[in-house]
Amino acid sequence: MKRVHFPGDSLDLNFNPLVVLELARDAKEDTKEWLIKRIVDKKEKGGAQLLIKPLLQDEKLDGNANIYLIGASRIRLLLAAEAVGFVKEYHDNTMRTFTYANRKEFKDFAEDNDDFLTMAECQYIIKHELENLRAKDEKFIPGHTNAKLYPGKSILRRLQTSGIIIQVFPLHEKEELKCLSKSWYGKVRIGYQPLDDIRRYFGEMIGLYFGFLEYFTFALVPMAIFGIPYYIFACEDYDKYVVFATFNLLWSTVILEVWKRICSVMAYRWGTLMMKREFEEPRPGFHGVLGINPVTGREEPTYSSLKRQLRIYLISVPFVIFCLYLSLHVMMIYFDLENLALDFHAEHNSDLSSIMLYVPSIFYAVVIEIMNRIYRYVAEALTGWENHRLESSYQNHLILKVLVFNFLNCFSSLFYIAFVLCDMKLLRQSLATLLITSQILNQFVEALLPYWLQKRHNKKIKKNVNTLNVNADHSLVEQINI
């Protein structure tokens, strides 16, 4: 096997790797050379102007031969920070859009300070530049004539859909992650999370997510305290529950309004509230004929808005309506099962029949989770097929599809029991069963199962890494293989 030539072989490749790019084992040498050239080429030539090097030089290690580490010079990161519109704190404590020309006027900036841009921001820049690599005059990917290209097509997207790129993912900084884990969950304690540190390492979205979880957990405490007497001293006088329901309604409104304020404070402090959106670039999955943007003057794909609207109203909307009908049909099957369980209990009146009363609700909760996950996958594919130009537009349409279906799928049965059947006993039973079963399933799928699979895989990887006799950072090799 001949060695792939790196355009940057003559350069200093001792950079800090930020992102890993893994190619398929059968990727052609022509494909590798072409892709590497596009990654390291200057922006004026249509490249990403990044740094890239192979994980291992030993080509006998087939599992790692097509794995590459990608980074960027400090100047390149700063210039890209201006291009994507990062907002930083100015010397007068105001938040302003970062510009490279005025970099010294920003707080905490120094020529020898590599922490001005957070790790999450640096990795976002690498991801942004890779995703915005677009074809120029190429008709197909070199070495893969069946992988067609046209001017404006996202190269990364085409390589992924063709199976040439297996995955692209960010690397961890071992020491920084260790410090974060100690301050975050290193010891059991009741207190606030280090949200600023979480944001610096994982990014604003993850920081806001854990910020909401923290706020929501504390916000539920008054509702729990107020509801304990109703749970312990259950009574059949349902008029007394009006007070509790009224409190929940008012407190829920207060929770949402206060969260808006807290979210805005965090977004302003982290620089996302003022981040420019007026010249938002096309999303990587957006495709169309290459044209000139009349506002920015840049080359970018163009696609008919009429075609997009036809796809939405003639295909997406009927599909969502059909899924809502299917959800209601499954709900009616659940009520039929409830009636069968009640008849079985009335006929036998045994411990087994008492347990059987909960089986329909448990079964329905499992079906709801399965339907939600299948629908989410289909909704993502359908929204991508609609070919939205901006990421914000794509997310808005996806959220609307998922929100409407999830709301009807999860809560339609409860509304039916409460306002049509008016059966408070069945409502309490169904609500408790659905919530508890849903929480158990989510904890298993999102926490326990990934933890067990990772632990199992780690043992195998560590054993394989220890047998490697290569001149490479074993911790890096281990992390990439995991």
Per-chain topology:
Blueprint: E1 19-23, H1 29-40, E2 51-54, E3 67-71, H2 74-84, E4 87-89, E5 95-97, H3 119-131, E6 140-141, E7 144-148, H4 155-161, E8 165-170, H5 174-185, H6 195-202, H7 204-232, H8 241-270, E9 289-292, E10 299-302, H9 305-348, H10 351-356, H11 359-385, H12 391-421, H13 424-466, H14 474-481
Antiparallel strand pairs: 1-3, 1-8, 2-3, 4-5, 6-7, 9-10
Mean pLDDT: 85
Q: Give a short account of the largest sheet.
A: 4 strands, antiparallel
Strand content: 5-15%
Tell me the overall shape: globular
N- to C-terminal distance? 26 Å
Order of strands, main sheet, comes to 2-3-1-8
Total E-strand runs = 10
Order of helices and strands: EHEEHEEHEEHEHHHHEEHHHHHH
Give the structural class. Answer: alpha+beta
**Are there runs of 5+ residues with pLDDT below 50, and where?**
none
Radius of gyration: 27 Å
Number of separate helices: 14
Percent helix among the residues?
A: 55-70%
Describe the structure.
This protein is α+β, with helices and mostly antiparallel strands. It contains 14 helices and ten strands. The strands form four sheets. It has a four-stranded antiparallel β-sheet with strand order 2-3-1-8. Strands 4-5 form a two-stranded antiparallel sheet. β4 and β5 (95-97) form a beta hairpin. α9 runs antiparallel to α11 (359-385) and α9 runs parallel beside α12 (391-421). The relative contact order is 0.07.
